Amino acid sequence: MVFEIFYSQLQELISVLLYDFAIKESKCQHVCGVPYTALPIATLLSVKAKKSMLMRRKEAKSYGTKKVIEGHYCVGDSCLIIEDVITSGSSVMETVNDLRKEGLKADEAIIILDREQGGKQNLENNNVSVKSLFTMSDLIGILVESKKVTEQMGIDVKNYLNNVQAPKSVSLNERILLPYEKRAELTSNPIAKKLFNIMAVKKTNLCISVDLTSSIKILDLIEQIGDHICLVKTHIDIIEDFCDNFITSLTNMAKKFNFLILEDRKFADIGNTIALQYEKGLYKINEWADCVTCHSLPGEGILKAFSSSNEGTNKGIFLLAEMSSEGNLITPEYTQATVKMAEKYSKLITGLVCQKKETFNNPEWIQLTPGVQLESSKDSLGQVYNTPEKVILENGADCVVVGRGIVFAKNPAAEAIVYKDTLWRCYMKRISGKIE
Ligand code: S5P
């Protein structure tokens, strides 16, 4: 969109239109252009509207004041953000965050062109109202009408914009601060919606990992702790006396106690094999598991396979972005590539299995974090345990996996209550924003 600065008449016309459209009546004291392409138009508007201009540096100076926001302002002043184009809204959000850190009110953004790919919604989720001079639909309509592009091209562009939406985002702090019931409203994955709601209603974010090899013992354990959990995580292939009745009993318990079932199969093969492992064989996982875990290692084919297997059904995937075990080979680049892959298949994704809050900030997904016991420790085979406080308050976990900490406790039912209460207290503290 930077082209407008190459034509002085066009620049003047746009600044007049923007001025009449949104600045004339505004009571704000300052304007601030999103660096760099909106700086020229923001300068023109600041002169025309006689409002002082603030300038946001993308990198703070390494000498002098080291300020990120330059200009004359007082805490509490309001500042209008000017941007040329929005797609996801993330550039506007960076400027908003820096202005807010200075104590300025930055609650309105004026945009020349909204590409209608989710940016407006993302900004509104962050309490920034958006006014755009044009939307992409307006522009395409004008181009089709004046026969500058064909009708078919107009339809293709609109379909593209509908299909390629920016991931929903709120600032990192807000993902962590938003209560589960709010996130249930935001998410587009049906299993994430259910799980957020179950956590909110039952007041538990405890997932039990029932790593036992006897079906009777598993059912007996769940009968004791069913009221205190939101999710049961199985490794179906370790059960020595597996039979279809076990699945019937497990799914009946899921209804009775209102929890979901996650089969921790950690799929990691080519798409075709995944489809067979998911739907066929002894376990027919797709018939009873609400969601499964899956590695991103083989590439997108794995998610395509689940997409077609799950067509028309309400299922979800937890993608492994990080692991809890010592010396695992996952690198930061792998983790970020996994998050990118998840974004492309956002509707299918219930959440990510990961260890750090920085891993993602999409509030639609659930951060499932294993490797948790009441004391930090390790087992003899590389498992690393963090405490409930650490994983919820520092590391951003939304739903916490506990296995042996409960399963092998002297009194699993009593221990489940201790975990549930501790984890819930940490979550309540987190959403209150009172984390030191
Ligand atoms: O990174 C991971 C991912 C998973 S799903 N680390 C893990 O430990 N898990 C699983 O969580 C693991 O397969 C096991 O079933 C559970 C942790 O069990 P615990 O007994 O160590 O609490």
TrEMBL record:
The answer to whether keyword Lyase applies is yes
Task: Identify the Pfam families for this entry.
Answer: OMPdecase
**In which pathway does this enzyme or protein participate?**
Pyrimidine metabolism; UMP biosynthesis via de novo pathway; UMP from orotate: step 2/2
Q: Which GO terms describe its molecular function?
A: orotate phosphoribosyltransferase activity; orotidine-5'-phosphate decarboxylase activity
What this protein is called in its record is: Orotidine 5'-phosphate decarboxylase
The Orotidine 5'-phosphate decarboxylase domain sits at: 205-417
Q: Which residues bind substrate?
A: 211, 233, 324, 383, 403-404
Its recorded reaction(s) are: orotidine 5'-phosphate + H(+) = UMP + CO2
Q: What keywords tag this UniProt record?
A: Decarboxylase, Lyase, Pyrimidine biosynthesis
Alphabetical list of SUPFAM superfamilies matching this protein: PRTase-like, Ribulose-phoshate binding barrel
In the record, the note on similarity to other proteins reads:
In the C-terminal section; belongs to the OMP decarboxylase family.
Q: Where is the active site?
A: 264 (for ompdecase activity), 266 (for ompdecase activity), 269 (for ompdecase activity)
Q: Which GO terms describe its biological process?
A: 'de novo' pyrimidine nucleobase biosynthetic process; 'de novo' UMP biosynthetic process
Q: What is its EC number?
A: 4.1.1.23
InterPro entries named in the record: Aldolase_TIM, OMPdecase, OMPdecase_AS, OMPdeCOase_dom, PRTase-like, PRTase_dom, RibuloseP-bd_barrel
